[in-house]
Amino acid sequence: MTRTVVTRVTALLAASLALLAPALAGDRAEFQPIGYSADGRYFAFEEYGVQDGSGFPFSNIFIIDLPADKWVTGTPVRMTHHDEAVSIGELRRLAAEDIAGRLDRLGIDYPATIIALNGDGEPEAAAYSLRFGPPGYGLSPVRGEHLLEIETFDLPSSEDCAVIDNATKGFALKLDGVELRRDVGPVPKSRGCVMDYRVYAVISPSEVGALEAQNVAIISAYPFGFEGPDRRFIAVPLGN
Fold it and tell me: What is the model's pTM?
């Protein structure tokens, strides 16, 4: 085989591996705020995507009791369709229909907005902190500025995580230098074998009315999945 042919084969092999690389990674859930209750007590959001390995679409809908900082009883509502032919859009419509009655009973019909975001195209260095402030009106700047920071540390898991080489992680969250939350004890079973966290977004009630409700931090959690670290979301109340 000539050197030219070898070079071409090597280049083709490298290109093939590059194309395969995304398929060897875990799945990356997307985030969608649903809204607040009219009294500001509840906040709901959806995480959705396509599972790695199986290729099945999924939608998980969470309702948070903000003053209690816990899931509403009976949630999250998780839906997966074990058929690759079912589109993620169709699955999400089914999930929305399934949760509609509960959202109505809790009065969750007030719009929420993402006021700050570490988007997926942002540099890695930005993912452990996020600056934000209440939006101004029109072209006005934000009304004040706050800093959200996350710290991660080794913490045993409630799950059997011998399958991963990395230690499972917990997190602590600070707002303007004041610690709001710190994991203690084993990592909750609901997070699986979580390998890391990021600050993803800050959610606030939309400026449509005069609703007094808490801002909510959205934290990306990365549990080990079938083909690598997946992405899921955690909501943390920040206060008004």
Answer: 0.85
Could you give the CA distance from residue 110 to residue 117 in angstroms, rounded to a whole number? 20
Tokens in use for 189? Answer: 């079973």
Identity of residue 127? A
Task: At 66, give phi and psi (nearest 5°).
Answer: -65, -45
Nearby residues of 31 by Cβ (< 8 Å), 6 or more positions away: 45, 46, 47, 200, 201, 218, 233
DSSP classification of residue 22: G
- When computed from its CA atoms, the radius of gyration of the chain, rounded to whole angstroms, is 20
Domain boundaries, the chain: 27-239
Q: Determine the Cα–Cα distance for residues 217 and 128; give it in Å rounded to an integer.
A: 12
Q: What are the structure tokens assigned to 98, written together?
A: 């399934």
Question: SS3 of 103, please?
Answer: helix
State the DSSP string of 175-215: ETTEEEEE--SSBPGGG-SEEEEEEEEEEEE-TTS-----E
Range in 4-8, 33-37, 86-90, 236-240 with the lowest mean pLDDT: 4-8
